[in-house]
Amino acid sequence: MKALLVLEDGFALEGRSVNGACDCGGEVIFNTGMTGYQELLTDPSYTGQMVCMTWPLIGNYGINAEDMESGKVHLNALLMKECCMTPSNWRAEKSLPDFLKEQGVPCIDGLDTRALTRHLRLHGAMRGVVSTDISDPGALAVRAASLPSMEGQNLVDVVTPSKPWILNGLHAEDAELDSEGRYAWKGTGTPLAVYDFGIKWNIVRLLEAEGFEPLMLPASFTCDQVCRLGAEAVFLSNGPGDPAVLGREIAEIRKLMDVLPIAGICLGHQLLGHAVGGSTRKLKFGHHGCNHPVKDLATGHVEISSQNHGFCVDLAGVPDVEITHVNLNDGTLEGFAHTIHPVLAVQHHPEACPGPSDSRYFFNRFREMIRNRSGRAN
User: Fold this and answer.
1) Cβ-based neighbours of 278, under 8 Å, separated by 6 or more
2) Would you call the peptide bond into 137 cis, given omega within 30 degrees of 0 as the criterion?
3) How far apart are CA 171 and CA 185, in angstroms?
4) Which residue in 293, 286, 161 sits closest to 220, CA to CA?
5) How confident is the model at residue 291 (pLDDT cuts 50, 70, 90)?
6) pLDDT of residue 216
7) Residue 109 contacts residue 80 (beta carbons within 8 Å)
8) Rounded to whole angstroms, how far apart are CA atoms 258 and 236?
9) Any idea what the Cα angle at residue 273 is, between residues 270 and 279, rounded to 5°?
10) Which of 106, 137, 324, 368 is most deeply buried (CB count within 10 A of its CB)?
11) Model-level pTM?
12) 180 is catalytic
């Protein structure tokens, strides 16, 4: 079925919808990963976006239950050069187009993804509309321009849970608190309060592997509520949207810095950046892929990292912070620590699945920070 993709500036491409009629829009970005499309699809950080895959063939190893990063697909549409209709892999349980059809998400192929990626690199990420119903590029461009900009959008409220939960194998389960807001920790590890701004499940798995017992919380949880839980540390997850509009969350994080060790990834890194006195700004076309070089300034090692963010942190002039990581492609901030409070944050994804795994030491570094703080307290 013929589909037309049009950006807000009038740039248009023809393709086809491989899983039915569609008419939707969102911020159009590109991702340079060759693999990991299922993890991308189910990553809540892509809420409100239509993702163009730069690798020309997507879907060849299919979809399986084990590779889910959340309970559903979050992006608005997947755009590609060629979709593999019949996967070939021993782990495959269904095809990519069938999975997206079940989820009600358009799967568009036949696009000139090289032209689209080049346009976005030159002019920046922008809003777009894809439709099988409307063939007038001008009308679709007007619709695209009327969509809300990613700047100023609070999308955390769209993906954050309504109540605490835990991960049990391949499923999320509600966690009950008592009448005073306390949680009966199971004793499987260090009690960890995890703010779920749109968390990827592999973060939870790696926290468990590092010896934590994570309890995922709604973004609305206050510092007082966290303290009543009996947690020994706090973790801030990834998530979608503009961090600058999350004033309530930033204020609570600022309070938590005085009482508990905190680590953050991606959006969590950005919110911590605001909490320590920094700011964030929109990148031209963001960092989306699994081949971005990041330098660890403490060791001098260069790590190949997975990235998915459209905003970056600026800590210029902020006292008592130490820059720990930088992006070697454009020099933007990739990580920092606080010299007074036990705070650790990285912009990239050390939990990347299927990889790369160069940065997974971050979870151990968080564990060591907690241990060192406990030793000073004693």
Assistant:
1) 313, 314, 315, 316, 318, 321
2) no
3) 19
4) 161
5) very high
6) 98
7) yes
8) 15
9) 90
10) 106
11) 0.96
12) no
State the catalytic residue, choosing from 74, 290, 349, 353. Answer: 349
Please determine, for residue 18, whether its predicted confidence score (pLDDT) is greater than 80: yes
Is residue 187 within 8 Å of 213, Cβ to Cβ? yes
Answer whether 302's CB lies under 8 Å from 240's CB: no
Q: Quick one: the chain helix, strand, coil %, rounded to 5?
A: 25, 30, 40
Secondary structure letter of residue 63 according to DSSP: B
**Which of 113, 106, 142 has its CA nearest to residue 7?**
142
CB of 108 closer than 8 Å to CB of 3: yes
> Which residues does 363 contact at the CB level (< 8 Å), separation at least 6?
206, 207, 209, 210, 350, 351
Residue 151 has pLDDT above 80, yes or no: yes
Residue that has been written with the tokens 């084990």 in this structure: 66
CB atoms within 10 A of CB 137: 18
Name which of 41, 47, 39, 135 is nearest 79 in CA terms: 41
Q: What tokens does 282 get?
A: 């929109």
Among the listed residues 287, 288, 351, 353, the single catalytic one is: 351
Distance CA 48, CA 147 (A): 10
CA separation for the pair 366, 27 (Å, rounded): 33
Whether 336 has a pLDDT exceeding 60, the answer reads yes
Q: What amino acid is encoded at 260 in this protein?
A: L
- Whether the ω angle into residue 356 lies within 30 degrees of 0, i.e. cis, is yes
Is 266 labeled as catalytic in the residue annotation?
A: yes
What distance in Å separates the CA atoms of residue 37 and residue 66, rounded to the nearest whole number?
13
Task: Taking residues 167-177, report their average pLDDT.
Answer: 95
Could you say which DSSP state residue 83 is in?
E
User: Which is the catalytic residue, given 83, 107, 266, 290?
Assistant: 266
pLDDT tens digits, 173-190: 999 999 999 999 999 999
**Pairwise CA distance, residues 281 & 337, whole Å:** 20
DSSP 138-164: HHHHHHHHHSPPSTT---HHHHS-SS-
- pLDDT at residue 240 in the model: 98
The predicted-structure confidence for 225-254, as pLDDT tens digits, reads as follows: 999 999 999 999 999 999 999 999 999 999
